[in-house]
Design brief:
Glutaredoxin; seven-stranded mixed β-sheet; 7 helices; globular; disulfide bond; Thioredoxin-like_sf; peroxidase
Length: 182
Amino acid sequence: MKTIITILLAFLLVPAFSQPDAKVKTGDKIIDFKVLLIDSKEIPLNELYGQSPIVLVVLRGWPEYQCPICTRQVGELVAEADQFKSYGAKVLMIYPGPSEVLREKAEEFTEDITFPEGFYFALDPNYLMVNKYGLRWDAPKETAYPSTFVIDKGGEVVFAKVSSGHGGRADVEEVMAALKGL
């Protein structure tokens, strides 16, 4: 128990080693990339947002441990699946990390999660997507700045929140408010 408390305190108290230099902001056209789903299927991002709004969530992925804040965030998103569906939105979660262990660790992360229809869990081996987006948190035991983007059907970012630490992530209410405006 003491170890768990120590890890949780470290998540909350550790300062950001650097600040994100996100290349995608509210009002920008989204940067397209191919989504590598956990089942190895590839889908171009524009095929997803061309059909419906997309909530793009960049998790911390595999920074040599499973992030408990990411686990909580994913659980909160999945719990609101009906609300996302009512807005016609899809949710795409990106799990970055080193390619040699990424699939194994992503499967471990998702083993107790049942993703509803319209939810996609994708891998970002070797940080290709997070580098393209300027979200690489290049510090020891870090991978990516936790980020959330809401993208409309035309590919425009209508909401963007990039955390400079482990916490400070977009909550479900913020995301729903952005979707409501579409």
